[in-house]
Design goal:
single chain; 476 residues; alpha+beta; 2 domains; 9-stranded mixed beta sheet; 8-stranded mixed beta sheet; 21 strands; 34% helix; elongated
Length: 476
């Protein structure tokens, strides 16, 4: 005599159940995704703490000659209920950009740690030569040469985070070393930097030499100005990034570091050689987080006050010292592939259940999925300590070992468990390749998904998805 055991679920119901559990596991995957962002935010906070006593991303600008001049303007006032216009004498500033500016920068990087976090710091040696000349048609710019107050002319250099100016600076004009004073940087650096009073009357060309040391972190930007700017930058850092408004004309990157050269012409900048307004910081071209602390200097004068007007934005070229491996970006991208790990593993269990006769319970699907999600938590935790590559090896090895052993118990066969282990090895190896071939990841992933779908269709082509049966249970 035979009795039947518990009613067997149809293959379609089993597929639906595995799919629902897979969808439920998207919730912990999203929590892991949020955890990555939280740890990245903590890393940025720690880096900011490291940088706070050193200097942030730096923007350098200048030199620029600034000369006050007197002019008249009409002011409208209301006196006794009547509009009254009167002409007053005011003082404005004339900003004279260099005809040519040649800048050389050597960046010496270093890494500093706080707990498990690190930040890229650097010391830069900036030097250059610039030449100035008043335009022959100066009156066409709305300024008369006889109105210029040359006894108060200034030569200005800028650095966006003045904390980095720890080794002083020198300004030499016409072969004479000038006395350097803090502050009054160009508007492009938020008024931070240093300046010197300039003994020049505007007659003939003016040759200027400058040099200063600058500490900063992560990136260094230069604001080109004037007729033509040439910038040569070199560093021993092997992982640079180039951004901003202009890319380098030539660059070399090797094991010894990198070198890059820029040539930026006045037509590309779209700025006149002289102006009565100073362009502001290049906020769209430099790295977020760059410190700008604008100051307005208005010395008292007879009849009016000199005002420094900052308007518009400058353009900058940026050289970044990026981390060789951005572990948070890679962990973030790997989490996005988490549903593939869950899907392929569940699919293998489902096929063993439907085709091979192994019975896989909902709880077993759930615990297997939890192990797959745990991989990404382990990857993040180990990556912060031992680096992404080794963390990937450790996390994948322990999860593959755990799920292979568990599969042997669930599927009642070590042969089947070895298949699950081989599947996971292939998946983790594929994910590592996709993470390192970002440009080709979509193409490779879509082709492999097509191949996997075709294989599943072929394997299950004879399955009656709606069929329901009973398993015979012998009774003595």
């Amino acid at each position: 005599m035979e009795e039947t055991g518990p009613k067997e679920r149809s293959p379609g119901i089993k597929l639906l159940l595995a799919g629902l559990i897979g969808l439920a596991l998207m919730i912990p995957l999203l929590l892991v995704y949020a955890l990555v962002y939280d740890r990245q935010d903590q890393s940025q906070t720690a880096q900011a703490s490291i940088n706070s006593g050193w200097g942030g991303p730096q923007v350098i600008a200048g030199p620029v000659v600034v000369v006050p001049f007197r002019t008249t303007e009409v002011q409208n006032e209301e006196v006794g209920g009547k509009a009254v216009s009167r002409t007053v004498e005011v003082e404005r500033l004339l900003y004279i950009s260099p005809v040519e500016n040649r800048v050389t920068t050597q960046i010496d990087p270093t890494e500093r740690k706080k707990s498990i976090y690190s930040s890229v710091l650097y010391e830069a040696k900036v030097s250059g030569k610039a030449s100035f000349a008043l335009p022959d048609d100066l009156p066409r710019f709305g300024v008369k040469q006889e109105s210029l107050l040359w006894d108060r002319a200034e030569l200005r250099m800028g650095a966006s985070d003045a904390r980095g100016l720890t080794k002083g600076g020198t300004l030499v004009a016409g072969g004479k070393t000038l006395a350097v004073q803090p502050g009054k940087g160009p508007g492009a650096t938020g008024g931070q930097g240093f300046f010197a009073f300039l003994p020049w009357t505007g007659e003939g060309p003016l040759e200027v030499e400058y040099a200063f040391g600058l500490r900063g972190s992560r990136s260094l930007s230069l604001v080109p100005r004037g007729g033509q700017t040439r910038w040569q930058v070199n560093s021993s850092w092997r992982s640079p990034s180039f951004g901003g408004a202009f890319l380098p004309d030539g660059r070399e990157i090797g094991n010894e570091g990198f070198g890059a050269s820029y040539t930026i012409d006045k037509l590309a900048l779209g700025q006149p050689p002289v102006a009565t307004e100073d362009p502001g910081p290049p906020l769209d071209d430099v790295e977020p987080g760059t410190n700008f602390s604008a100051t307005t200097v208005s010395p008292a004068i007879v009849g009016a006050r000199a005002s420094e007007t900052v308007t518009g934005q400058s353009r900058a070229v940026m050289v970044g010292l990026v981390e060789p491996v951005d572990l948070y970006s890679k962990v973030d991208r790997s989490v996005k592939y988490g549903f593939l790990f869950i899907g392929f593993t569940f699919l293998a269990f489902l096929l063993f259940d439907i085709v091979g006769g192994a019975r896989v319970a909902a709880a077993e699907y759930l615990m297997t999925g939890a192990g797959l999600v745990l991989f990404f938590v382990l990857l993040l935790a180990f990556a912060e300590v031992i680096g992404f590559a080794w963390a990937y090896v450790v996390a994948s090895a322990v999860i593959i070992g755990l799920l292979t052993a568990y599969s042997a118990a669930v599927l009642k066969s070590w042969a089947r468990a070895r298949f699950i282990g081989a599947l996971l090895v292939g998946l983790y190896a594929l994910l590592y390749v996709l993470l390192n071939l970002e440009a080709w990841s979509l193409l490779i992933g879509s082709v492999l998904l097509f191949v996997a779908l075709a294989g599943v269709m072929y394997t299950t082509r004879n399955i009656d998805w709606s069929g329901v049966g009973r398993r015979p249970v012998p009774v003595g």
